[in-house]
């Protein structure tokens, strides 16, 4: 039996800006928030994992870190069918997803103004549990190929038992915002002459090998 038709990974995602909503409008530091799709997609593609937030069956909040891949205008997440994510997703449920890339540690002369240079994305959406076998196969393949190009061809496919234990969620990228900070420390005028060092220590994630 051949592989199902591949997902349209070459499909050009939507361009322009996300529509601003009440949920994507911040109460503070509004000058740091934008709605550019290209900027948000760069963060989602660069981040090694995302955090998925939702309300569990017992009414209590959940936040789960999980691996992801973006294909076009959809974010796909991997989880376990035995966990809260799989159970909630069986009926579809509202979620929030966050992804953050830290670019630098910002050292100020005061405690208050220590900060980070970062890029973070927040997504609000209704998640959909992927049940179609062909779609599941393609999403699984896309997730594995995110580790390294062509990695799915250099590793074994999931067995029926492994496949049954895996929950795959589809999250449309429609209600999204990106918040970011860049630049050096902010100092109060009266602190400028204090005898303390300040500046930015750059941060980056380095992958040293591809198998």
UniProtKB/TrEMBL annotation:
First and last residue of the signal peptide: none
Residue ranges, annotated region (Disordered): 1-31
Ranges of biased composition (kind: Polar residues): 9-18
Gene3D superfamilies linked: Electron Transport, Fmn-binding Protein, Chain A
The protein's name: Pyridoxamine 5'-phosphate oxidase family protein
Organism of derivation: Glycomyces albidus
Taxonomic lineage: Bacteria, Bacillati, Actinomycetota, Actinomycetes, Glycomycetales
């Amino acid at each position: 039996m051949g592989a199902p038709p591949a997902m349209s990974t070459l499909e050009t995602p939507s361009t322009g800006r996300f529509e601003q909503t009440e949920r994507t409008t911040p109460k503070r530091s509004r000058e740091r928030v934008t709605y550019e799709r290209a900027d948000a997609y760069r963060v989602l593609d660069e981040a090694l994992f995302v955090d998925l937030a939702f309300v569990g069956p017992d009414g209590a909040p959940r936040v789960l870190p999980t691996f992801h891949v973006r294909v076009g205008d959809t974010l796909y997440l991997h989880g376990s069918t035995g966990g809260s994510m799989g159970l909630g997703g069986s009926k579809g449920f509202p979620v929030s997803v966050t992804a953050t890339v830290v670019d630098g540690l910002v050292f100020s002369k005061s405690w208050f103004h220590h900060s980070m240079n970062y890029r973070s994305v927040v997504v609000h959406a209704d998640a959909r549990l992927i049940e179609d076998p062909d779609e599941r196969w393609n999403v699984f393949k896309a997730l594995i190929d995110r580790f390294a190009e062509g990695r799915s061809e250099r590793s074994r496919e999931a067995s029926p038992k492994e496949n049954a234990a895996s929950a795959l969620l589809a999250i449309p990228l429609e209600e999204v915002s990106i918040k970011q900070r860049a630049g050096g420390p902010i100092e109060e005028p009266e602190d400028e002459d204090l005898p303390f060092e300040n500046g930015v220590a750059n941060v980056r994630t380095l992958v040293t090998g591809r198998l």
